[in-house]
Amino acid sequence: MTFPPAFLWGAATSAYQIEGAVREDGRTPSIWDTFSHTPGRTIGGDTGDIAVDHYHRYRDDVALMADLGLNAYRFSVSWSRVQPTGRGPAVQVGLDFYRRLVDELLERGIKPAVTLYHWDLPQELEDAGGWPERDTAYRFAEYARLVGEALGDRVDNWITLNEPWCSAFLGYGSGVHAPGRTDPAASLRAAHHLNLAHGLGATALRSATPARSQVAISLNSSVVRPLSQDPADLDAARRIDDLANGVFHGPLLRGAYPETLFASTASVTDWSYVLDGDLRTIKAPLDALGLNYYTPSLVSAGTGKAGGPRADGHGASEHSSWPAAEDVLFHQTPGERTEMGWTIDPTGLHELIMRYTREAPGLPLYITENGAAYDDKPDADGRVHDPERIAYLHGHLAAVRRAIADGADVRGYYLWSLMDNFEWAYGYSKRFGAVYVDYRTLERTPKSSARWYGEAARTGVLPGVGTTV
What we know:
Number of helices: 15
Binding site for substrate: 17, 118, 162, 294, 416, 423-424
EC number: 3.2.1.21
Keywords: Carbohydrate metabolism, Cellulose degradation, Glycosidase, Hydrolase, Polysaccharide degradation
Helix content: 25-40%
Protein name: Beta-glucosidase
CATH class: Alpha Beta
Region (Disordered): 303-322
CATH superfamily: Glycosidases
Order of helices and strands: EHHHEHHEHHEHHEEHHHEEEEEHEHEEEH
Strand order of the largest sheet: 1-2-3-4-5-7-12-13
Number of strands: 15
Radius of gyration: 21 Å
Strand content: 5-15%
Distance between the termini: 17 Å
Largest sheet: 8 strands, parallel, barrel
Shape: globular
């Protein structure tokens, strides 16, 4: 289980989940500020107002990463901290925070990977129509240029968007994520404009950063498996695959949406918002592709539109995340589960990596998110033992290593997440972190999985599942 010497061992976070300081230094509300402050939207009414206060504690957090032995860190920039209205000049004090963070990382020998958008659209842009509106893509490109100009001299690895599927279909379809809208047609328009934002943003980044910069996107591509080989179940899996995967990797990698996607969604939209030149823009050359993976999906054909709350691994809602595929049924896959109810299946990660090795030959891959939530608690001595997470990480990292042996060009792995944080609509009820956070005191305590992962990072070799570090 030895990994290549240049392999990146990182952890990942996102701005709204960890920063806090939502009203400091000119930052204005994002859609997640609005959503989390709307009664009934998050468990316990939790918000990211303070989160884990990374904005004020970033030096300690970087020191913790260095102590663990990590050599890479993926974080996101808060758009409304940098460009409060989503338009116009940057707020330099906002950019200064990220300049300081990057400097601290580099001083500790940790390679920064900057994600420009992790779901926190400035509220003013949502008020103007949000991602279903074409203009939002152009505003994103302007924002990408501003951040590229500020950090491009010291950041080489860039990610335009994180999981655009969630932004489009959970934000505008099922409404379980911000901004909480439930309009199937709007969710498909949002998907296209997110694709366009990536293409425009990639071009803007390249114009503002040195030639050595690498531009990528992180997709939460699904491993979609049919319940049976019945033609109806196979068709259900194909429709979900188009909506989960093809709607993004089709334009990104091939410059075309799947014709089957157009056919199956014709009752919802006519796709007239795909204008001449859009697909060429979206297919801007990628330097790498980020893959986020947690669990596979098992689907079958239904007998009609399902009524009542629907659970498809992304929360329950009376509205579907899958436009024109509301009849498809999602089934619990067999096996052990995390605290999210997600089945633990490392074979899905290997399958996903090998799929993109075939879909995009020669394109370097990074696992930009992978991890598990468990009900972690300190023991009497204040230590946090999480053997389940160690087993999860070992299984999934072994799947990555197996894919490398099978010819995949995987160059790094970013554990989700560095530390416990605001878990979106779940508030503070789910803990994904390798570092435990006491939400009353904000004290950080590395869990046993953090030490285990750090040993892997330092040596490039996976310790045994039962290894005590």
